Amino acid sequence: MTNEELKLFLSEKFPSLIIEEGNEWLTYYTEANEWKLLANELCSNISLQFNFLFCLTCIDWKTHLTMVYHLTSTTFKHTVVIKSKLNKENPEIETVCNIWRTAEFHEREVYDLFGVKFLNHPDLRRLLLTDDWKGHPLLKDYEDPINMIKL
Amino acid sequence: MLSLETITNNVHDWLNNHVSSTWATIIEMLIVGLLVIGLFAMLGLILVLMERKVSAFMQIRVGPNRVGFKGSLQTLADTLKLVLKEGLTPKGADKFLFNLAPYVVMCAAMLILAPIAFAKNFQIWDINIGVLYISAISSISVIGILMAGWASNNKYSLLGAMRSGAQIVSYELSAGFSVLCIVILTGSLQISDIINAQQNGWFIFKGHIPAIISFIIFIIAVTAETNRAPFDLAEAESELTAGFHTEYSGMKFALFFLAEYVNIFVVCAIGAILFFGGWMPLHIGNWQGFNQVMDYIPSSLWFILKVFGLIFLIMWFRWTFPRLRVDQLLNLEWKYLLPLSLVNLLLMTVVAIMGWHF
Amino acid sequence: MYRTTDILTNTPNTSLGEAGYMVINVGPQHPATHGVLHLVITLSGETIINVEPHLGYIHRSIEKMCESLTYRQFIYTTSRMDYLSSHINNHCCALSVEKGLQIEIPDRAKYIRIILDELTRLASHQLWWGAMAMDIGAITPFFYAFREREMINDIMEETCGARLTMNYMVPGGVMYDLHPNFQKKVKEFIAFFKSKINEYDEILTGNIIFQNRMKGVGIISKEDAISYGCTGPTARGSGVSCDVRKLYPYEIYSSIEFDEIINNGCDSFARYEVRMQEMKQSLKIIEQLIDNIPEGDFQAKTKTVLKLPKGEFYTRVETARGEFGVYIVSEGGTTPYRIKFRSPGFSNLSALNHMAKGNKIGDLVAIMGSIDLVIPDIDR
Asked: What pTM did the predictor assign?
């Protein structure tokens, strides 16, 4: 589907999605509690079939966190980017491990480096850092006087 | 012509003339013991260097060439290094078995040297059940390996030893059947009889098809028995377990290492005796002139050439083939080689009875 | 780093003695894991029940570091990530900066970049072939693979100045012009390597022991490969068409003739075959380009200090292992606000548990070899 058709389709099904303009691919903002429904629909709908999650990451905007999911379809070759704002004190979002298996490792990495809790994740532990590390390094306000050298 | 046979006869006569016969026997036993130990050491030296040079040749590199003339003293340097290393015994290891295991393996390797005929009339002990004796003693080395694996108190050693034990015990069957095929052609288990029966041609030519099949099975089986690649998963570094000799260091490891190479020599010597005539020169039926020319080459040289040819073949296998997985290895033996060797045995029996051999 | 008791008690689905399961560690230092990878394997006899990778032994926080590096500096951290595809990774970063700044690079630079990319892909596959053979037990092919790889390294050394981490790509083109001997040496290499590829097939591909070790081992179906996010030869061995050079062509790939190799075998042998054919395709690409490098500038004129406009940019290339993506979020400054490197090995490794379940320990080595893992790429 082209971007226009996708826009029409998605705005019909999920009127609460907000479009972000100015990006190369169609980008939508969704609420954290609606993410699971949207993800299910994107993957299983016959005319969408977004079966390939190729990038899962998080950005720290100092006042809030944003989860970014890049999805594409291997059958229709269209791409969409879904973002979701999370609040900084208690960042939580539903996991999508059972929809896209690649999310298991990616979500563990985001939990490790940003502290985002993924609800119902089968095995949410630190991945890259040691089990007893304190803090989440990729947050902008992370302080580590021993390891970080500020120029 | 100066031959080993005349030397031994001269020594024997000289001793009997000068001392009483019991003393002569005792002195002869001592001389033979020293020669065997010397042979063991020399073989280890030569074969390790040969392996390194052959592997280098196949891997387009040079191999050891600094120590001694073109690297000939390399193994000596390596053995010296191993002797000077600290011999660690792991805590919790069964000390008696741990120390005994390398000696069992080494003694088994040395004992098999007894019935092998290195040249005409140059055997330590021409026992009348020569071939059976060899089969029996080679089974003793399995005990040494299992002892080493168990006494190390290390679960990876144990796994490696179990795998190795299973492999050796299975492949002994096929090796035994191949040997039996040749015994059928001769009618005797004695080594000198087997060699003398090849007076007019080696068994691999006289026995044609069954003997060739038997030889191929024999080579595969002895490669597996000596834990050489492609059957070396018991000591493979890139697999999980590091083998039964993980916990050994220093002199004991050197003994395992040398014993492995002497085992290779021994099984190749048996192969040469059974299939290629041992020290018997290449004779073709009744071609008198040809046979006489062949007889000029001394018998010990014939033996050495044949054995080292087979050793080169076994080393060639190691650097060419990837490794078999343990279940594929046991599959190969029990589902393919064993039925094939049984059928081959029947075939050889038919050939021998009907007189269809040369 | 980890206390042993923690691994055993906290690892799900394992406990000593339950139904006779044994838990063993492979790595982090191990001859068969390509880099520092720690696997905790639960075995029942010789059969694998569960494989759990423990990562992070070479985590250098590259993503955090890049937040304080300028747009000219961050490119070279990627050559330390997947050091076998260093040119390709640098290429991706340079492309992303050029996309953000809308820079047009000269044709000569495009040709040079693609030729170096394909040479890097060849070198990476050669090392993969040698290392894989060595893991399976055939030690000799390792030396043959390195003999050819040395030729590529020599070419790189003359032109780029380094043999492994070749910092040669800049936003706008390449750093220096080609060495005068470059064309001649590459042509010699192509002629030499064409005969050697057939030798590789003779030594290893046709060997029945090798085929028995690889066929039917490590099966992953097409849907599972897509779901696990596998890309590159790992996915193409299961029938997924995902070559970035064909789907989202960059530079001049749309005008070069080459095939995307897809194999429907789904097992380790299929992945092996895909990489062998890819080597031949790389040779084909280089042949088409080496005689036609246009004259001109090797670098477009760019400002000294680069500032990407506010926004986000995602660029992807095809490395030897799969799809490498660079996701830059910029706030308009001289350094990126957030960079995410989508590394191919990370997703390929997550499928290891799925592929290894039910196989024997000896197969684990074959599977890891066929996925072609480079751990610094995974840990970043």
From this structure: 0.87
